[in-house]
Design brief:
Elements lengths: L11 H4 L8 H24 L16 H10 L5 E5 L3 H8 L2 H8 L23 E5 L5 H15 L5 E6 L6 H13 L3 E7 L2 E2 L2 E2 L9 H4 L6 E6 L3 H17 L4 E6 L23 H6 L2 H11 L4 H24 L15
Parallel strand pairs: 1-2, 1-3, 3-4, 4-8, 7-8
Antiparallel strand pairs: 5-6
Bound molecules: thiamine diphosphate (TPP) and magnesium ion.
Magnesium ion (MG) binds next to strand 5.
Length: 340
């Protein structure tokens, strides 16, 4: 029988310094991370048609602030799990564009030697334990990691990122139930773009809203605008604080707008399943533009932002060149690093 260890407290040091009122320098550092994700995905959009990336790509343009903001607020030692729409999560945790593009090009220099592709990016040493193409599957893995932490008496957190579509799956409710029953140190992060492929939540969900459907579970719940980086950091910091005070799992429900098609590098507003936002609305939904406005208020100039963009673009160009030139893994690698 599992012996429940006495619940340790989250490291104070991990929460210290994660203040929502970021300084100019903090905001610039966060902007760098956010823009790295945006420019990496824009590079994929530019290069994808050449058909060298032999992997489907689920781009997260519009949703970058969720991974960047939540990961900024997470304590060290957290084990993170995600979905196929994972580019922001990978880059927020690692910053490693060589491993990222190596993986997308299927090369031996990739984070998983080219065997995982875009949908299964992982970097266990940096806390990204697993991501998966199969909707909902990494949620119970995160709960298992949280249970292992509790069993071993470790003070660490586990976090699962998943889409609004996963909430319609039995495995989500079973995982939530178990985490609440065992009062695990587990943070659920729902990245809600109101879509499962082309179908709006109102056509799929038999409940009024996700936060309302959670009422009755013994967990902390918070909602926020996932396009607002500072808001995401504040919401994450606040819910981690509540979890510290009253050790229950946390559930963050963050909304955002998916700018591109479900899978692939294009816009798809012509398909007609959702309205196209106006130019003003696009800006309000764009987390990068919003951070730029905040930086201008801090007195940062357009030239400073352009310099950041140039250095990021150079880094990305080097990583793409390196990925193109790298070899594929040798056939002898076929059955290494895999189960079976
Ligand atoms: C178990 C399972 N069922 C169905 C699918 C097909 N599928 C792929 S993505 C997707 C939509 C998921 O939507 P959501 O969880 O909201 O994530 P998003 O794509 O919006 O990020 C579906 C149904 C799948 N991959 N796995
Ligand atoms: Mg969705």
């Amino acid at each position: 029988m599992l012996q429940k260890a006495s619940p340790p407290t989250l490291r104070d040091a991990a929460l210290a310094g994660r203040q929502a009122s970021a300084t100019r320098a903090d905001t610039l550092a966060l902007y760098h991370k956010l823009l790295l994700v945006r420019r990496a995905e824009e590079k994929i959009r530019e290069e994808y048609a050449s058909n060298e990336m032999k992997t489907p790509v689920h781009l997260g343009i519009g949703g970058e602030a969720i991974s960047v903001g939540v990961c900024h607020a997470l304590p060290p030692g957290t084990k993170a799990f995600g979905t196929y729409r994972n580019h922001a999560l990978y880059l927020a945790l690692t910053g490693d564009t060589d491993g990222f593009f190596g993986e997308l090009y299927g090369k031996v220099t990739g984070a998983s030697k080219g065997k995982a592709g875009s949908m299964h990016l992982a970097a266990p040493e940096q806390g990204l334990m697993a991501t998966s193409a199969v909707v909902g599957t990494t949620i119970p893995l995160a709960v298992g990691a949280a249970l292992a932490h509790q069993y071993r008496g470790e003070p660490h957190l586990a976090v699962a990122f998943f889409g609004d579509g996963a909430v319609e799956e039995g495995v989500f409710w079973e995982s939530l139930n178990f985490a609440c029953l065992k009062q695990l140190r587990m943070l659920f992060v729902c990245e809600d773009n109101d879509l499962a492929i082309h179908t709006a939540a109102s056509e799929r969900q038999g409940f009024r809203s996700i936060p309302e459907a959670l009422q009755g579970f013994r967990c902390h719940v918070a909602s926020g605008d996932g396009s607002d980086l500072q808001g995401v950091i504040a919401a994450t910091t606040q819910i981690l604080g509540r979890m510290e005070q009253d050790s229950r799992p946390g559930f963050l429900h963050l909304t955002y707008f998916r700018f591109l098609e479900h899978v692939g590098p294009m816009e798809d507003f012509h398909a007609g399943y959702r309205p196209q936002p106006s130019p003003e609305e696009r800006l309000r939904l764009d987390p990068v533009w919003r951070v730029e406005q905040r930086l201008f208020e801090h007195g940062v100039s357009r030239q400073e932002l352009d310099a950041i963009r140039s250095s990021i673009d150079e880094q990305i160009a080097r990583s793409v060149d390196a990925a193109r030139q790298a070899p594929f893994a040798s056939p002898s690698e076929l059955s290494t690093d895999v189960w079976g």
